[in-house]
Design brief:
Number of helices: 6
Shape: elongated
Distance between the termini: 34 Å
Structural class: mainly alpha
Order of helices and strands: HHHEHHEEH
Strand order of the largest sheet: 1-3-2
Radius of gyration: 20 Å
Number of strands: 3
Largest sheet: 3 strands, antiparallel
């Protein structure tokens, strides 16, 4: 009986900790939208290309093997979700990842590909 009481208390403590550290619903929605944007294969390919540095649309298209219209559409989604940023230099627009945390997430995910647990 004592062991059961200890387990219940432990679980109650964990629930309190989880509630205390829970993000506001608005932040959860924003985070979910960003994960959704990142998880689409063509956008992930673009992010993989940009993880090596800033590129223009033409070079991103070449790197990912897509067509310019489709790449531009995916870039807009990534930009709208604040995952990438753009800067203009003359006629060219250069894109880069807006937050190095995204690069770290991609690198960690690539490492996880080899895990079988």
């Amino acid at each position: 009986m004592k062991e059961t009481k200890e387990i219940i208390e432990l679980h109650e403590t964990r629930v309190k900790e989880a509630k205390a550290n829970m993000l506001p619903e608005e932040d959860i929605a924003t985070l979910a939208a960003r994960f959704k944007a990142i998880s689409e294969p063509s956008r992930l390919s673009i992010l993989l290309a940009l993880s090596y540095g800033e590129l223009c649309v033409e070079h991103i298209t070449e790197a990912v093997g897509g067509n310019q219209s489709a790449v531009s559409h995916q870039l807009k989604i990534l930009k709208d979700n604040k995952i990438i940023k753009a800067r203009r230099d003359g006629k060219n627009i250069y894109y880069s990842i807006s937050d190095e945390h995204v690069v770290r997430m991609i690198e960690l995910s690539k490492e996880h590909l080899g895990c079988e647990e």
